[in-house]
Amino acid sequence: MADNATPASGIEVRSLYKVFGANAAHAVDLVKQGISKAELNEKHGNVLGLKDINLEMPGGCIQVIMGLSGSGKSTLIRHINRLINPTAGEVLVGGTDVVKMNEHDLREFRRKNTAMVFQKFALLPHRTVLDNTVYGLKVRGVPRKQQVDEAMRWINRVGLDGFENRYPNQLSGGMQQRVGLARALTNDAPILLMDEAFSALDPLIRTDMQGVLLDLQKEIKKTVVFITHDLDEALRLGDRIAILRDGEVIQQGTGQEIVLHPADPYIEKFVREVNRSRVLLASSVMTPLSEPGASEGLSIAAEATLENALHEMVRADVRTAHCLDADGRPAGALTLYAVASAMVTPSEEPIKGKTDHCNNHML
Q1: If pLDDT is split at 50, 70 and 90, which confidence band does 292 have?
Q2: pLDDT in tens, 204-233
Q3: Of 108, 119, 112, which Cα lies nearest the Cα of 77?
Q4: How far apart are CA 208 and CA 163, in angstroms?
Q5: What is the pLDDT of residues 182-198, one digit of tens each?
């Protein structure tokens, strides 16, 4: 199996509802008529898990779903591989509705199209690192030599070379999560589902694992759905972010859009303590060129953080610079005032520059 052998599949969630309890279909009708989550539970004994979720997750990108405990984020990710059946709605993967799959097709879909990384690692304690990693291929009936070759490649890639014969209880938490990641990647599934995958790790190890994922994603380009309750983690990892509250999407977009234009006071609370200088990019505050221009003077990458842009402009003692796109072409003009203003106050101008791609990761 080669890296990224299976093309990444986009995911589209349409009008998804999940109600727990009796007469769930009737409860969905009540929700559509305007009954609140609290009233639904008090009067009818139903729990509203998800309410009218509509999301488009581009193939090959990292989609972060974030929210506080009880917001519905883990319920949502479990609909993608149908570990939970929806009460209403569609979950389309590569154009195929997972909700309508029969038992056989669903089993094959889970085996070949999705891999999951859990918060608590979910390793088999009686199996070595190698045997944990090959488990998915073993279930699929892949020949043993191919299992081992593929597993060893990913064990090495996640930094566990030499630990393949150790058992989980001989590894640190961070190392155990690397095994979980290697196991998921060994399956070569186009969709990687990560439910609070790094939340149980110490802060430094967590940051390290985020870096591992970002480095691997540059090459493998999987469709990653990453669940977290941490905004800093969401901003670092997510090409796109959806924020949930009480089972409902409150805002979705790029990290740049959410930080610069929070949709309501609830989102404002999330972004209030964000270090904007290390999150926002020069492309967010530059003035795009109406036509190709000269590239004289200081050049700054459009994907540079405002912190780095400010440092370069101060060091060069200039008040203006031009931004270069990924191909090194002039993309826009940048002023010291725009950089400083965006670092301390929300911008009132629309988001500028390209934000609908999969390369807006933070440094």
Answers
A1: low
A2: 888 998 999 999 999 889 999 999 999 999
A3: 119
A4: 18
A5: 998 898 889 999 998 88
Q: Are 325 and 292 in contact (CB under 8 A)?
A: no
Reading the block at residue 347, the tokens are: 């911008």
DSSP H or E run through 223: strand 223-228
* pLDDT tens-digit map of 293-337: 556 789 999 999 999 999 999 999 999 999 998 888 888 999 999
Tokens, residue 195: 């439910």
Name the residue with higher pLDDT: 345 or 241.
Answer: 241
Contacts of 314 (CB under 8 A, 6+ apart): none
Which of the four CATH numbers 3.40.50.720, 2.40.30.10, 3.40.50.300, 3.30.470.30 does domain 56-253 have? 3.40.50.300
Q: Give burial (CB, 10 Å; 0-12/13-18/19+) of 103.
A: exposed
> Measured between alpha carbons, how far apart are the two ends of the chain, in Å?
31
Domain ranges for the chain: 56-253, 276-344
Rounded distance between C-alpha atoms, residue 48 and residue 16, angstroms: 12
The residue written with tokens 């591989």 in the block is 81
Phi, psi dihedrals of residue 54, rounded to the nearest 5°: -130, 110
